[in-house]
Amino acid sequence: MFSFFKQTIRYLKSKLERDGYGVEILYGGMDKEAALETFRTGPSVDILLASEVAAEGVDLQFASLVINYDLPWNPMRVEQRIGRIDRLGQPEPKIHIWNFYYKDSIDDRVYMKLYTKLQIFTNALGGLEEVIGPKVEQITKQCMSHRMSEDELTAQWDAIDQAIENVRRLESELDEGANQLVAHGDFIKQAINEAREFGRFVRVEDLVTYVEDFFVNRYSGTTVHCVDPSRQAFRIDLTPAAIHDIQDYWDRERIHHPTKLINPVLLPKTLFVFSNRVGQAAPGTELITQFHPLTRFISSKLDADPTTRSRKAVVAAAVDTAGRFPRGHYLFCCRRFGFTSGRQAIERLAFQAYSMKEERLLEEGAAELLIGMVVSSGCPHVQHDDIDGVELVDIFSTLIEEDLERQFESERGRLQREINDRASIQLKSLETYRSTEEQKHRERIAQAILEKRSTTAKAQETRLKNLLAKLDVKREAIERGKDLRGSPDFVAAGLVTVTG
After folding, report:
1. Spatial distance between the Cα atoms of 170 and 177, rounded to a whole number of angstroms
2. What is the pLDDT of residues 246-280, one digit of tens each?
3. The whole model's pTM is what?
4. Rounded CA gap, 48 and 27, in Å?
5. Cβ neighbours of residue 259 under 8 Å, at least 6 residues apart?
6. How far apart are CA 256 and CA 246, in angstroms?
7. Which residue from 13, 42, 198, 490 lies 20 to 30 Å from 135 (Cα-Cα)?
């Protein structure tokens, strides 16, 4: 049974135990493995009461009932909850999902109607979450505000219904191909995951720097000029060589994303607005986000240049943080965590810093903030006569490097759990598809034999054999896709002196 709040979990535990049920609880800060083992093996434990801690990276196929005491806003979270028991190895022929909600409440009007429309309790969600997710949040807020009439809310529902139907129709068309299965879902999820990872760690200022540094250094004569800092709006003047290379990349990769960057006439008339959130561009502007193919173009160019991948930096700098950090010396390191799994590639920067004055590592996020300030407003500073070099090496190797190694292993574990969960869902879908299609073909073969149409029967047998062979290859691809590889590559390290 899932609930968001610790107080609710404790309340449900007392009520259920009074009614004679054996209950185990699990929420943040508890020993997850111990709680799950008790639930699995405890002879007197009937129910696991859990927060979102148990919604991912957990195998509970020995249970067959999921109860949503309260429903998440995000449909993908519901699918993840269901995925705890709807896994390979589930011995029951049917699993059950129970949802608690008040009639005519927001849960009833928004979530239950929407989730039923999505068939989320019977089918995998696939790429729909990103399509309707923002609309769900919007209509929920509108219901709670009581500012919209029934007709206006109905119009909103119609828009969501249409979006769902469009994606379902696309899925249906893809289903007609023998090799459809999860390939399109993989592509959608990969794009979503990469964007989430990118948005999580890259600020708008970093995105601007990434684009500006590349073009100014790679194409002499290119200018990137900020005309509205409040909107992060820029004029970009590209050289003919830069326009040619971008156009070539668009054509080679068959990119259909419209851009003014390859139009010499519209380029000087367009404002380019940088953002780490996807949105609608205003007239006369173009939005540059982590989704924009321009970032992939830059990445492809940098990857093709061996000097950029091997470049490392050792920094000695001073920065005024306007009181955000205490004055003193800080030793820092930045590494690039790179992971690959099948066709999916994820990279993010990881940071750690140590305060020499306070003799401690900085809290999570503080090191990234400090280094970001150095990048944006720091200056060279090499006078450090008051620092013992041997002490720096010792701190770097025993504290900073060890913490970054811990971060890397934690990130690897989190990604591996996500990959295993996704593979489990895909394999389940594959087996369902295989079983359904094999049954259809067997019935056609039997009918053809009954009607003494031997040629038709033989043709159906050949089709079935080819289909099963393709599905075996697909299964092997999914299994191999579970292999996660990664490395924590060095990017930069140094000493920062905070002057204010």
Report:
1. 12
2. 999 998 888 888 899 999 889 999 999 998 766 67
3. 0.45
4. 11
5. 246, 250, 286, 292, 293, 294
6. 13
7. 198
